[in-house]
Amino acid sequence: MASFFSYNQERKNVKMKSFSYKTRGTCSREIHFDIDGSVVRNVKFVFGCMGNTQGVARLVEGMEVDEAIARLKGIDCNGRGTSCPDQLAKALSEARESM
User: Fold this and answer.
1) Which of 8, 13, 12, 19 is nearest to 94 (CA)?
2) Phi/psi of residue 59, each to 5°?
3) 1, 16, 50, 62: which sits with the fewest CB atoms below 10 Å from its CB?
4) pLDDT of the chain along its 99 residues, tens only?
């Protein structure tokens, strides 16, 4: 099972939670992100293909969690059965369930 940590941060009556997710099967090793209400914020990949992971992070910034999961879930990288975007979808899904 992937490991998680989270902490709450009070901001304008909305709880922002920060998460860290250990990835599996990808070049990236970890993903850090915040969920502000139901919106994805501040996604950062540790290692991985920098251009691709930065692109994914910027594309999901400000997106609703459920929309990001729907768009990223199941993307495969070179027959690995997963990818950095797919791992982000898994991380967001687990984070949503823990809230």
Assistant:
1) 19
2) -65, -35
3) 1
4) 445 555 454 445 568 999 999 999 999 999 999 999 999 999 999 999 999 999 999 999 999 999 999 999 999 999 999 999 999 999 999 999 998
At 87, the amino acid letter reads Q
- How many Å apart are CA 68 and CA 95, to the nearest integer? 13
CA 63, distance to chain mean position in Å, is 11
- DSSP code, position 77: S
Q: What are phi and psi of 75, to 5 degrees?
A: -65, 130
Tell me the domains of the chain and their CATH numbers: 4-98 (3.90.1010)
- 43's CB contacts (< 8 A; 6+ apart) are 31, 32, 33, 56, 57, 60, 61, 88
Planar angle of CA 63, 79, 47, nearest 5 degrees: 55
Contact, 4 vs 18, CB < 8 A? Answer: no
Task: Look at phi and psi of residue 14 and say left if phi exceeds 0, alpha if psi is from -120 to 50, else beta.
Answer: beta
